[in-house]
Design a protein that fits this description.
Number of helices: 2
Distance between the termini: 94 Å
Largest sheet: none
Strand content: under 5%
Shape: rod-shaped
Helix content: over 70%
Number of strands: 0
Radius of gyration: 29 Å
Structural class: mainly alpha
Length: about 70
């Protein structure tokens, strides 16, 4: 084995390629977080509606008991 072969860099990427890959990864992560946030907002809206319905049902049940 020659000395020259053992001193080669393991990863031979230029700076621009590393930055482009990093930017692409961050863009994908941002898109996923945006989709997750939208889904969570829908879930919160559904839960708010369910809470309002349950509160009204509780009030109707309390009035019927009296």
């Amino acid at each position: 084995m020659s000395l020259e072969a053992s001193n080669r860099p393991l990863f031979k990427h230029d700076t621009e390629a590393v930055l482009v890959r990093g930017l692409n990864a961050m863009t994908q992560a941002n898109e996923v977080l945006t989709q997750t946030n939208a889904q969570l907002r829908l879930d919160v809206a559904k839960l708010d509606a369910e809470i309002a319905k349950l509160k009204e049902r509780l009030l109707v049940n309390n009035v019927e008991k009296e």
